[in-house]
Design brief:
about 475 residues; alpha/beta; 9-stranded mixed beta sheet; 6-stranded parallel beta sheet; about 20% strand; elongated; binds adenosine-5'-diphosphate
Amino acid sequence: MRILIASSEAIPYCKTGGLADVAGSLFREINALGNDVRLVIPLYSRFIDASSFTDTGVEIPVRFAERTYTGRLYQDGNTYLIGCEEFFGREGLYGDKDGDFIDNAIRFSFFSKAVLSAFRAIGFRPDVIHLNDWQTALISLYLREDYAGDTFFSDTSTLLTIHNLGYQGLFPSQVLPYIGIKGYLFNPEGVEFYGNVNFLKAGIVYSDIINTVSMRYAGEITTSEFGSGLDGVLRRRSSDLYGILNGVDYSVWSPDGDGVIPRPYSVSDLKGKVMCRRGLLERTDLNIKGGYPLVSYIGRLTYQKGIDLIIDISKRLSGYGCGMVILGSGDRKTEQEIMDSIGRSDGRLFARTDFDEGLAHMIYAGSDMVVMPSRYEPCGIVQMIALRYGTVPIVRNTGGLSDTVDDYNGLSDTGTGFLFDDYNASSFWEAAKRAMTVYSVKRRWLSLMKRGMEKDFSWKRSALQYVKLYAKAMESKRV
Ligand code: ADP
């Protein structure tokens, strides 16, 4: 199979979020399964070290509204970068300290058009182009519009992966002539969304197949509660809508081979976990007695992640004698609110509001439980990493959290964590109390931890499902 993965970010080159992990890891695994897969991302020259890439000499002119922007294609093996300093030589991928770049619509339309031109120029004819989020969603539209009379891509299908429906690429309609989209496509059946242009919607309408990053979220986004205004369009495409869970890179996230944590451990030898807890208590200077759990939160401090419930539970936990560690950044006000509650926690709350990968490893290994009370969660990776580290998740029953955490059942002694349904502080607290009750019975807690550690959320598993979906996209090619 010939696959082209187009993304606005990918590890190990550049990353602002989970999309980079998916694009980079999937590229590696699809390749390992014996496919001819190529990855293309923009050349963010301030962030990407392109010294291993060679200049292909391929120039990519893209004409928008009387102006021609010229990109250039660079290659390292099967990875490609599209350079255009005017668009990608900036101090951020999508924005800087003043907010999003005002020409993001043009930057990513350019990238989407340039991808098609570049691969046509080098003669790579993909069976499937895999689009990711709004930044590359327009490829499906340009493929239909610009290449209708050209046989080069006539057998090429498209798969759009929605990583988070909360981000749609919404721009005023005045942008249309500057991104090469004809006026007749600006209607509710096409790219229009209540008077604006919606890039993700274009991808949903024009791609052959659509998927999102968990089964549960694939269903949820067709409802008005989770659909962010696109539920109607998604319902219309529901027979082409699938869910595939993201994976975890176990070469980085596994307690038996983790070089950052005080002592490695595994499901068959858990002694190291005790040392890791001690190490985390020392590092955070928390004042917790033995027998009381150490609970953590790692992730963005945003509305989506349920920040109000996180702050609420941190207070309840410290009142109970438990410890809480928070690692994450968000808006200033939220960060300040968390910092302020440290002083009232009797030394039981620790928080860091920068990005610290090393500390994240220490927290996954040293905590007893992690919390994720998300309002919505397309997939979520924190709970999957935590399970691997024997750190029991307490999560809201939504999206990927529902698909990856099985609720504990004391009668049958089954499950890997604790779920709660309603988004409110008391339901969350009930789940936390259930967890604490089980925590106090060591034998039960150990078997709960071990069940979680044995779960397989590897990328290989996800990649096999993507290969099947690519085949389905090839079968489902629309005109
Ligand atoms: P998102 O919605 O942000 O993609 P995920 O749960 O899918 O949430 O992934 C978050 C990832 O980012 C995890 O690997 C987590 O360990 C990491 N992470 C989030 N915030 C921080 C931070 N402040 N420091 C270190 N790692 C972080």
